[in-house]
């Protein structure tokens, strides 16, 4: 250790090739110590700010979530102990249509990020079909509404064509309005 990271001035000559390599290694060790000497601050709120976009694929969202976790926490998606955290974050912050499907998964497969990604991809790829069915359903509702309005207008017009009685409503009948 003293050879590569001396505490006293080693008087290395930067013009000598071998000593230049020692200086370079010394610099790299110093930088490594600076980067890793102080523990990384845990900022879990950054993880909860990562939300899947409407057009973002499930894999891209998971990668972005892992990247933020590596940057702002000491959590690692590869570690078994952190797996449940990433599963919870992935399910909770996915798009609403994907989230509804992922909430329904139970059992040991519900804890596997690979299985969740597979289901999320199925939902993501079926979005167009679901959207198409939704539009067809809305069009059917509009058509039904138009047909009912047209039928009501025809019935109403047919009711008006009969003879209209003229005169006071209770003519000839006894009572307060009658003229008997």
Provide the descriptors you would attach to this structure in a database record.
7 helices, 180 residues, Core shell protein Gag P30 domain-containing protein, Non-ribosomal Peptide Synthetase Peptidyl Carrier Protein, Chain A, mainly alpha, coiled coil
Structure notes:
The structure is a single chain. This protein has 180 residues and is an all-alpha fold. Among the domains are: 1-38; 44-127, Non-ribosomal Peptide Synthetase Peptidyl Carrier Protein, Chain A (Orthogonal Bundle), CATH 1.10.1200. It has seven helices and no strands. Helix 5 (96-103) crosses helix 6. The longest helix has 34 residues, at 127-160. It is rod-shaped, with a radius of gyration of 38 Å.
Any chance you could write out the topology, listing elements then pairs?
Layout: H1 17-37, H2 44-48, H3 58-72, H4 83-92, H5 96-103, H6 113-125, H7 127-160
Describe, in short, the structure shown.
This protein is mainly α.
Cα shape: rod-shaped
Which structural category fits the helices and strands? mainly alpha
Largest sheet: none
**CATH topology value of the domain at 44-127:** Non-ribosomal Peptide Synthetase Peptidyl Carrier Protein, Chain A
InterPro entries: Gag_P30, Retroviral_Gag-Pol_poly
Domain Core shell protein Gag P30: 3-125
Pfam families: Gag_p30
Region (Disordered): 154-180
